[in-house]
Amino acid sequence: MKTPKEFVRLIRESEIITNPGVDDRILQDARNELAKRQQDRIAPIGVLWRTLMKTKKTAFITASMIVIVALIVFQFVGNPVGPGLTFAQVIEPILKSDIYSFDLISGSKDGGEPLILHCLSKGLRFRLEGNFSAKLHNFSTKMICIYDLQNERILTLVENGMQAQYIGYKGFVNPQDKNLQNPMKSLKDQITFLKNDPDVTVKELGLRKMDGHDSIGFYAYSSNSDTTIWSDVKTELPVQIEINRGQVHLIFRNWKFDIPEADDLLSMEVPAGYTVIGEALKWDREEMTEEKFIEGLKLIAEKINYGEFILCKSFKDINEWLENVFYRLDAMNFSKEEAVNIRQSIDYVNLFLSDISTQGNWIYRGQGVRVGEADTPIFWYKPKGSETYRVIYGDLHVENVDSEDLPE
Amino acid sequence: MEDKLLVYRCKRGNEAALTRIYEKYKKNLFLLAMTLLNDRTASEDVVHDVFVTFVRRLDDFRLTGSLKSYLMTCVANNARNRNRAERLRSNPLPDSEMEFAGCAEGPLETVICNEQMERLSNALAELSFEQREVVMMHLHASMTFREIASARQISTNTAKSRYRYGIEKLRSILNDGGDR
C-alpha cells in the first residue's frame, strides 16, 4: 500500500504553534506534579530512624528496632545493587581494599532532613554510626551497630542510656552465596554479574568538581535501579556513589581507605559503661515472606487493634503505624511469651515492607478495614521480576492482578 | 539515549529536563491530538492530561522503547477515551460529517495551525477514529504495525487493515481535491 505523497507532505508541512499561555499552563501543572512527587519521595531509613526516636517506648524496643534499619542499609552495602559498581576503574580500590569507610546519606535535599550514617568496614566486620534526634520528644542520641558477619551477630549501642543489645540474624548477607559470607567476595561476584548483564547501560557524564576533587562521572541504569558514580580522576578513588532503587535513595561519599583505629571501632565487646539489656533477638531473612507479612497483619489487627487493620497509608506513614502498634502493645497486658510473639510479627511486617520498598512501590489501604472483608483490597505491591501485582484482601487471600486492574 | 537521561533527570525532580521533554515533543503530541479529535480545546486538554499523568507516574515508568512513541500512544489513548465519552454524552455527528474546528479563529487563539494542518485534519476527518489513529500512529509517530497493535490491543492484521482502508480513503479524498 503506497501512501499518497500529498498526505505525507501534509503531515510534514503541518505546523502547530502553541500559545505561550498553553505551554505555561501545561508545564506549570506538570512542574507542580513534579514538586509534589518530590515531596512524597521519602527517605525510608530516615523515617524509620525518626520513628524509633519518636516512639516513646523502652530502650529494649528502640535498640532492637534500629537493627531493622541497619539491616536495610546493610543489604545495600554488603549486597550491592548498583550497576555503577561495574566500572572497574572506580570500584577497583574498594575491591582491593580490605578496609574502607564512607558516609551514607539517605534522603535528598528535597525530601526533608537527610539521615547520615558513618560506615566502616574491615574484613568480616561492619559498623554503622549516626546521631539521631527526635525533636518532639526532646531526645537525641548517638547510635552504633556493629556487625560480625562471621558469627551472624550484631551489637547495638545506644548512647543515651548507655544500653547495649546483641541480635542474631540469618540470611541477610548475600543470600546467593551460602558458602562464604564475605561481602567483598559477593561484591566482586556482583560486579562480574553486572558486567555481563545486557540490561545495564552506562553513560559517561564528563568532568566535574566534586567535594574539591576533579572527578569523572558515570551514570548506569538497569530495569530496577540507577547509579551515578563520581571518581577522582587522579587517584581513581570514588568521591561519590549515588543509588536509586525503588523508594530508596542513597548517597555514599567521603570515602577513606586508611583507618588505623578500625579494629577498636569494630570490636564486638560491649564498651565500658554500657549495660546489656533484654534478650537476644533473632531475625531470619528466609522468614521475610509474604506469608509471614500476612500473618503479621492479621495477628496485629486481631491482638491489638480489635480486629481492624492498623493505620498506615504509605511508607511515609510507617512512623504512625509503628507508634500506633507500640502504643497499643504497651497498653495491653500480654504475657511475656505472647508479647515476644507479637513483637516478632511486627518485626517481620516491617522487614518485609522495607525489603519490598527497595524494589518499588507498595500501597496500603487497610485503615478501618476489618479482618475478613473479602472484597476489600488492603495492600498491593509488585514483587521483584513479576509482571503482575500481588493484591491482599481483607480476608487475607491474595490475587495476582495486572497493573491496569489495580484498585483505584 | 537523550530521552533516557531526560527521564532519569525528571525522576530526580529536574524541571529543566521536564521542560525539555515537553518542548521536544509538544508539536507531535498536539498534531496527533488535533487530527484525532478535531478540537482545539480538547487537544489541549489531552496533551495536558498526558503530560501531567506522565509526571505523576514517573515512579513506575520504565522507558523500554521510544519516548515519543510512548507519549503519542498516551495521547491516542486519551483521545480515544474522550472520543468515546463524547459519543456517549452527545451522540454527535459521524466523523465523516465533522467540520475541522480545531484552528477556528477565536478571541483566545491558543493553538495556531497553518493551512496544511487544516487540510490534513479535514482529510482525516473523513476517516473513522480507528483509521485516523492507525494512520497517524504509523505515519506520524513512526510506530510499526506490531507496536500499534500492541498499544491498541488489536491484532497486527487488524492494524494493517485499518491503515490500508484509511489510506485508500485518503487517496480518494486527496485525488478528488486535486493537487492543491
Q: What structural keywords apply?
A:
heterodimer, A: 408 residues, alpha+beta, outer membrane lipoprotein receptor (LolB), chain A, 13-stranded mixed sheet, four-stranded antiparallel sheet, 10 helices, 34% helix, B: 180 residues, mainly alpha, Rna Polymerase Sigma Factor, Chain: A, globular
Report on the structure:
- The complex is a heterodimer of chains A (408) and B (180).
- Chain A has 408 residues and is of the alpha+beta class.
- In chain A, 34% of the residues lie in helices and 29% in strands.
- Chain A has two domains: 45-276, Lipoprotein localisation LolA/LolB/LppX (outer membrane lipoprotein receptor (LolB), chain A, Clam); 288-405, no CATH class.
- Chain A has helices at 5-13, 20-40, 44-54, 59-78, 88-96, 183-195, 262-265, 290-304, 318-331, 336-357; strands spanning 16-18, 99-106, 115-122, 125-134, 139-148, 153-158, 163-170, 201-210, 213-221, 226-232, 238-245, 248-256, 275-276, 281-284, 362-364, 377-381, 389-393, 398-401.
- In chain A, the strands form two sheets. In chain A, strands 2, 3, 4, 5, 6, 7, 8, 9, 10, 11, 12, 13 and 14 form a 13-stranded mixed beta sheet that branches. Chain A has a four-stranded antiparallel beta sheet with strand order 15-16-17-18, with helices on one face.
- In chain A, helix 3 runs parallel beside helix 9 (318-331), helix 4 (59-78) packs parallel to helix 10 (336-357) and helix 8 crosses helix 10 (336-357).
- Chain B has eight helices and one strand; from the N terminus they run H-H-H-H-E-H-H-H-H.
- Chain B has one domain (2-177): RNA polymerase sigma factor, region 2, helix turn helix motif (Rna Polymerase Sigma Factor, Chain: A), CATH 1.10.1740.10.
- Strand 1 of chain A pairs antiparallel with strand 1 of chain B, so a sheet runs across the interface.
